[in-house]
Amino acid sequence: MYNILICDDQKDIVDALKIYLKPEGYGLFEAYNGNDAVELVQRENIHLVLLDVMMPGMDGITATAKIRELSNVPVILLTAKSETEDKVLGLNVGADDYITKPFVPVEVLARVRSQLRRYAMLGSQKEDQDGNLSIGGVSLNSTQHTVTVDGELVNLTPVEFRILRLLMEHPGKVYSTKTIYETVWQAASLGSEGSVAVHIRHLREKIEINPSEPRYLKVVWGQGYKFDGGKQL
Asked: Which domains does the chain have, with CATH numbers?
């Protein structure tokens, strides 16, 4: 059974979403501010978060960024039609999708199901107790800070290692260069996204058999980069 966290400062919205989702058999948790949502993700086994953007105190954008520090669970933002900039900002800090108010029940269910399928198939990669994470022919050990490709050790810089680890923890998920920069460098990008492209190029040269036709580190034009699991294009 999947557990879904619904967070909105308006109780009637939380109650309405519970009515839509309860017949599907999901375990439902509720919160009414960003701080409580982050704490629940940290404490409970949450598989998806429905998160309002406009809330007093910690808003949904900030809460999304903090959730991304803890977990790769899908986050679907709840937005008003007028909150276009917030939608874009939310996606840039790690949200997976958004639903515009007022809700259409069939759309809510479709988007929830879609994100849960993606999470089950691609988004739940975890390091084992020894710090190992393996996808395709690439194996990463976060404890020893080592990476092997088809059994061969490759030497990565600390920044290259952090980029690779981020993408491998969320295979199939597309990250913008801005998000990669701010996550890896822990600083505002301020137009420094070009550094990401340089490091991705160096990573490809080290882990790909043919960097011009990558198996793993792929670009999604106009959106960013993803780790694809080793399938050929």
From this structure: 3-123 (3.40.50.2300), 132-227 (1.10.10.10)
CA dist 44 and 39 (Å) reads 8
Question: Within a 10 A sphere around the Cβ of 128, how many other Cβ atoms?
Answer: 9
Name, in order, each residue with C-beta under 8 angstroms of 175's C-beta and a sequence gap of 6 or more: 166, 167, 183, 224, 225, 226
Tokens standing for residue 140: 């990463």
The pLDDT > 70 percentage for the chain reads 91
Please state, in angstroms and rounded to a whole number, the distance separating the CA atoms of residues 121 and 226. Answer: 15
Instruction: Judge whether residue 3 has pLDDT over 70.
Output: yes
Does position 231 have pLDDT exceeding 50, yes or no?
no
Q: Model pTM greater than 0.70?
A: no
Query: What is the mean pLDDT of the segment spanning 131-149?
Result: 88
CA 9/CA 71 separation, integer angstroms: 22
Residues in the chain: 233
